[in-house]
Amino acid sequence: MYTVFIIITIVVTLVIILALIAPKGYEVSRSIELDHSPEKVWQHLKFLKKQQEWSPWARKDLNMDLTFTGVDGEIGATSHWSGNKDVGEGEQEITRIVEGERIEQDLRFLKPYKSQSDCYMTLEEYEVNKSKVTWGFTGKNKFPMSIMMLFMSMDKMVGKDFEQGLQNLKHNLNN
Question: Taking the model in full, what pTM does it have?
């Protein structure tokens, strides 16, 4: 009985220590420079339907169920998706727009696990008719997921998808 108590105490102490040192949040972002004016690029960022044309996840499930509500390109517009195991189920809602510069979205994953992230895209002109797009998201790691993030990297899990999406955007703009 004493041995069981010692083992339980060690396990509980270990979990508490891991929870204290685990990352409480995450941020992932990627950028790309484009040979196009910000006005042209903005039309591909602002509208949820246009985002689907370059989204790396849309290409992972061509039969994904996708619905839109609200006025696309305005605060409150929402897209909801339900797809295969690669894309899961979730929704994104436009929450803030700084016209021609920044769009923010509430990204809610429903399956395979529930989570929420704040997604953003920024657009800036770095030379005449050249643009830089930064796409990223931030969120909080809740217990017990926070402990798992000691051994996993959100950047490694989705960073390549962001890079692919930005390359898809570049390709679409060039065609």
Answer: 0.84
Q: What contacts 126, CB < 8 A, 6 or more positions away?
A: 33, 132
Strands across the sheet containing 78-82: 25-34, 130-140, 115-127, 102-111, 89-98, 78-82, 65-69
Per-residue pLDDT of 41-69, as tens digits, reads: 999 999 999 999 999 988 888 889 999 99
N residues, the chain: 175
Rounded alpha-carbon distances, angstroms, from residue 99 to 23, 39, 40: 33, 10, 13
Read off the pLDDT of residues 67-96 as tens digits, 9 standing for 90 and up: 999 999 999 999 999 999 888 999 999 999
Domain count across the chain:
1
Rg of the Cα trace of the chain? 20
Residue 52's CATH number: 3.30.530.20
